[in-house]
Design brief:
- By secondary structure, the chain is α+β, with helices and mostly antiparallel strands.
- 46% of the residues lie in helices and 25% in strands.
- The protein has four helices and five strands; from the N terminus they run E-E-H-E-H-H-E-H-E.
- Helix 2 packs across helix 3.
- The site of L-tyrosinamide has 13 residues, from strand 3, helix 2 and helix 3.
Length: 102
């Protein structure tokens, strides 16, 4: 279909444009047992942060109870949560990771 094809007064490309996907925040939650270094490693491994960024987010979670790791489409956010939860369980840490619609 050409760009010139019209429906009503709208060009086809305008009429069929889709909404952006809903985005989800991925958050880490604080607990009293997971080692700070483990949380830093999680943020580096699954959220592609350097050590400085990861340390800043870890301390924010430690001091404020929760902290933002990233914002992603639903399937990507769900995969991050699953990866973090599995990695934490595999190492016997209670670290919790959740997603929330933006
Ligand atoms: N509060 C933990 C401690 O003092 C560190 C920690 C930080 C745990 C962030 C979880 O998401 C977390 N060892």
């Amino acid at each position: 279909m050409t760009k010139q094809h019209q429906h009503g007064s709208l060009l086809e490309a305008e009429r069929t444009r889709v909404a952006p996907p809903p985005m989800y925040r991925v958050l880490l939650l604080n607990d009293d047992f997971t080692p700070m270094e483990f949380v830093i490693l999680v943020l580096m491994k699954f959220f592609s942060m350097d050590r400085e960024q990861a340390t800043r987010i870890m301390l924010k979670v430690h001091n404020e109870g929760r902290g933002l790791c990233g914002i992603y489409p639903k399937d990507v956010a769900a995969t991050k949560v699953e990866q973090v939860c599995t990695f934490a369980r595999d190492h016997q840490h209670p670290l919790a990771c959740v997603m929330e619609e933006n």
